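Weekly sync notes, structure subgroup
Attendees: PM, AL, DS (notes)

Item 1: joint prediction request from the bench team. They want all two components modeled as one assembly rather than separately. Inputs as received:
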Amino acid sequence: MLIRFENVTKRFGSFIAVDDVSLDIAAGEFFSLLGPSGCGKTTLLRMLAGLETPTQGRILIDGVDMAGVPPNRRPVNMVFQSYAVFPHMTVAQNVAYGLKIDRVPRDERDVRVADALALVGLGEFAHRRPDQLSGGQRQRVALARALVKRPKVLLLDEPLSALDAKLRDAMRGELAQIQREVGVTFVMVTHDQDEALAMASRCALMDRGTLQQVATPGDLYEYPANRFVADFIGTINLFEGTLGPGAIVTVPALGTPVHVEHAGAPGTPVWVGIRPEKIAMAPQTGPRPTSLNVTSGTIMTSAYLGAVTLYDVAIAGGTVIKVSAPNGTRLANPALPAGTPVWLHWAIDAPVVLMGD
Amino acid sequence: MSRQSQRGPLDYASRWSLRLWVAGVMLFLYLPLASLILFSFNDSKRTIRWEGFTLDWYARLANDDALISAFANSLTIAALSTLFSVVFGTMAAIALWRFRFPGRGLFDAMITLPIVVPEICMGVAMLVFFGTVMPWPRDLVWPLDLGAIVIAHITFSFPFVTVVVRARLASFNREMEEAARDLGASELRAFWDIVLPHLRPALISGALLAFTLSLDDFVITFFTAGPNTVTFPVKIYSMVRFSVTPEVNAASTVLMAITVALTLIGMKFQRTEITKPDTGQPEPE
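Output from the run, pasted for the record:
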């Protein structure tokens, strides 16, 4: 393991920012620390960089205990949220700064700086001052400045949050591309789940200082470990229920039992989660679907988003179910109007069953 | 169309009543200074009548050894006091910005005390201190004999430096220093390479502030100066006690010119400080 957190806890006064976190990150991963603000993800990253000291526990990088190792002696480099590009230095001087401190000879330094700037596509901007750069270009400077030191781990603190939406999408792909190119382990902090799912090879979802789940983006979305994960990642319809005999969950709010894949101990209280895109919808003018899981309702509101339309459907008893329908064909009026009675149905492998409260 | 309607709502300058008022204020503020400067060029010793233009009084200044040595004293004191004020003031500002320590609130309040304490009290305090508590040795060689005055000047100058440097530090992005550390810089190196360049405009304007404060201080200096350590403002005062000659006018004009010039330079640096915050924050695209 390249990075190992062993029972790491960080307290600020009485506030517990990171609570007994143990985590392994392998070399070459694009790892993402994801969670709402204040969940401790940035503190975890800063402890890795040496900018914060753990209250308890150990952090190992490449098998070496990092306790007492100051930030300037760690084999990691960081891209800061504000980019922290030095305003009184040119782009090239910014990138060369770390090498200069390491007393890398002038010739080698020039070559490495040029390579790093070429990697991030800023070759022509070497002699610009930071105040002549756009936000996206400053971020590339910060990236080149960190990568030029050839760290074992590159740390990224909310790297895309200061960019506008279009640029963010472009940089998302580019960051992943650069990571593949240089092969350096990336650890990225983000509060944006789309960012984490799109870029990371593995994610750790955190809440209130604790790890909720460490998994690939696909597992995080399709096989959430608990209600927090299911709710945080994407949109989900969550209902309280009880395991019945056979592969059936009794859900009072739905008024119909939910057939699931696997059976469990009857009487166990569970939560059932169904993603909106896994629910199929058909107007009641057609026949009742033959699926095991069928219920009927009335469309309350619809939101047309181009690629999909999101519906709020009220079923008997007043429960509202979110359904998203892909707009696969070109229609003048792709959304069904409010008030339309519809059938809702889903496959038995669509619902996730979550144990615990 | 009348002109009235073409005027913008905030275009006050075009109203004659306001122009008159501004002229009155200007006259009130600058008439004494203007007459001081004017009569320093007057070719007459006593009368306040204009007798003709002359530079004689300035020539007399240049040949007045006592005045020249007082001027040299003032410049030396100002230079030394500025140097120490900038170092101490910056250190205090950084301590307050960077660290949390017991008594920080008290330290914060105490540091600005010399700015608000009446000058006359500071003067008397210095007189008592250097007279009885810790007498400054007499008959020292120049410039050591100026020590007491220099110390007094540092006391009232460095809080101003602290205030200016603190204001500048508030706009410093801490991630910049962390980035330097992350890139391999030791704590000292990161301060030298990153924090200090950010502080440069504040250090310059703080230094100019300290310099002008020291150069034209009269009250506190008057209480700490000995017979051999007369400064320029104190010398002017002693000249006035005999009679207000155009020579005094000329000396005052010189002092004023230096102070105004330094203040203008200081303001120029202050302005660059305001327009370029250098926080390192990306601008929205």
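Discussion: Residues 165-182 of chain A form the longest helix (18 residues).
Action: AL to compare against the crosslinking data before next sync.
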